[in-house]
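Continuing from the previous page of notes. For each protein in this section, the sequence appears first, followed by its structure tokens. Read the first protein now.
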Amino acid sequence: MTTHRIPLQDYDRHDLVWALDPPSGHLSTGSGRCHGFVRVSSAKKPVAALFADAGRLWLQYGDRHWDCEEVSVRHSTAPDGTREFTVTGPRGTELCLGYPAPRPEPFDPAYDWIDTLADDFLLWVAERLAAPDRREALREHYTAGFTAA
């Protein structure tokens, strides 16, 4: 992975572009063609990103990053609604995050799968990385870059 900052589109606010410094996981205001998406949470939580750099597709959580060809990701939901996102690599489990399910406020009877993906970045990531052909298509798209909305 290179040491330059990578422009990424904000997952929640599509009009914002951030520049990610992969070694540190820090963000600054960015511009230009985007090479993936970043989820910016509260100051207490690390950023999570899915992006292309140097011809590879990368997953980043905080200052940790993985080549998506070398790991598998899994997302599961327990009966009580809690969720778990796991990154598994050659040495076993490298990241395991448990978190509560997003809750739409106020209750929305039209809340569906698209809303669920919009609310849960890690679920969206797991869906995108589920199959080799999806990963390849995403790698090509992100490598070429795209304009933020």
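Done with the first. The second protein uses the same format. Note its length before scrolling.
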Amino acid sequence: MIFLINLYTLLVGISRAAYTALFNLYLKSYDIPNTVIGNATFYYSWGMAIGGFLFAGISDKIGRKKTILFTMPLYGLFGILRLLNLQWALYLYLVSFLFGFFDTSVIMPTISVIENSDEKKRLRNSNINFAIVMITGVIGYFGAGVLSERIGLYPSLNISMVLAILSVLPVLAFPNVRIKKRLIKRKNELSPSQLIMLIYYISSGALVSLAAGVFINFGNVIFYDLFSFSTAMITVVLAISQLSTAATSLFSHKLTHRYGYKLSLFLIYLSVSVLIFLMPIFMLNSYVFSIAYILRYVLINISTPLYMVFCLSYLPRQYIATYSGLSYFVNNVMRAVSAQIFTKLSVTGETDYNKLFGVTGLFYLLNTLLTLFVFYLMYKVSEQNTNSEAHKLSEKQNSKKSRPVPKAKKTFPLFRRTTHVSIHIHTPNTTTKRHYVSVFVKQGSVRRKRSDF
């Protein structure tokens, strides 16, 4: 099952990366203004947020397999329709929204890997799947560039969407698994520790998305503005970032085996926060800045599988997809907000990157403090549960001691239970006219004569 999920991730990841790399360039080739391109991306992001939330919940009822088989062909269809009638902006916005609405290529593989892995292999399988996602980005970006130079942008984009439709072939071999869950009758069905972890799962993901959205959406712009890097050089930096993340994510589970999830997450988030605050200093040298950018990319991305496995392991399995869909929705909204922040800091025509890195570092720092606070709350809840269980156990023992004990009947044993006594009366002796009584004592298998009377 894990192999099939990874194969599906590989195919749909290459398709998605290639389409993402070429679509904006395709619009540029038709002299579409940046405002229209930005609005098309805005509606696509909202469609992806709403669709991801809805289909995650629907997949709980009908299963992951049926959800993928329903959404991905429509995703490919609207991806092709998105290339037509570019002169009509409203048409482009509507199709872009529907294209994002049926895009379940990110959330479904993540949920499926977690659900189909036991606790010992869950993090390792998540890291492998995440590494495949990183590799597909590199293959998709470079492959799309080479292919578009040979056959053009429009045919290359169509081929990428055909590949997205064909990516469902491994899904046909998925088992028909449907998540059974109880009807929710009470709002407080989650335990205190589960409720804390759910709030942290949503809040931490939102803060990281708010900070990382700047680098995800505008990383190439940052390098172009600061150092006038060529397109090829920018692509090399991004490719090295993804390859480094893929390589390190394969071994990040060893970090948790040695230090645990909590300490590993805290140290990673703290390191990223410090790194971002130092970015204005690193801007003085392009090579140092590039290394710092790659290191930030690696650290924050290898923390993603750790964070997801750690949080979702606390939550009820039958609601994992619903919670993931909610987080997916919030994260996409936060990325839209980060784009607005970038726009506000660029109103003068030039982006104030000192303020941008300061604001971004603040979001990372807030996430680090939130992580530390949640770990403290989890410790207090665990301690409270332990004390409560100990109190119940002591009450149970005290109740046993307070019960009246019935008085035992007094017995006076003459011999041990293993001792048997036999008495033999002999006939009178003809000479003395006396009677003899012989007493024999048997202990175990030994029989002894004790006395004559």
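What the second structure shows: The first strand starts at residue 419 and ends at 425. The chain has three domains: 1-178, 190-399, 419-452. We return to this in next week's lecture.
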